Amino acid sequence: MKKILTGMAVAACFLTACNSQSGSTSGSYSTAIKAEKNRVTALTAVQNLSDKKIDPMFEVCATDFTDYGNGEEKAMKNIDTIKAGLKTFLAAFPDYKETDLMAFAHGDSVIVTGTVTGTFKNAMMGMKPTGKSFKYNDADIFSFNKDGKMTSHRSIQGNATFFAQLGVPMPEKK
Prior knowledge:
Elements: H1 2-19, H2 28-50, H3 54-58, E1 61-69, H4 79-92, E2 97-106, E3 109-119, E4 133-144, E5 150-155, H5 159-166
Parallel strand pairs: 1-5
Antiparallel strand pairs: 2-3, 3-4, 4-5
């Protein structure tokens, strides 16, 4: 009984401290809340891609959202173009999935890590499907504005890893 009362007292003190209005809501407390909201938003966006829910992914994006990819291609700024590209990609890899997702936030930046898999089952941008699968670890880096809207995305995995596993020669750079 003593352990239960002690636990309840500790919990009550903790809740009182968390809900206290005597402290300032600016500074690290509000920064931590903002970072956590951004973390959940980024994690949900990645999960939406894995679940093939493209439109909800972009509901959290700022109007000036930019997808930098992994830096090997030109950055994309038109959300409709990005959506169309993702839909084409998911049609070619209908079993695309991201698993073991973890998200880490600091300030206005969030990194989501996970394992990405899929099988090249349908044609994509003139490439014939090979029936081969890919699997690699990746990290997506998102930035957010002060309103909690996603402003950019970057990925760290190079295209060579992806194409080599699929048995497809790397496309020529334009």
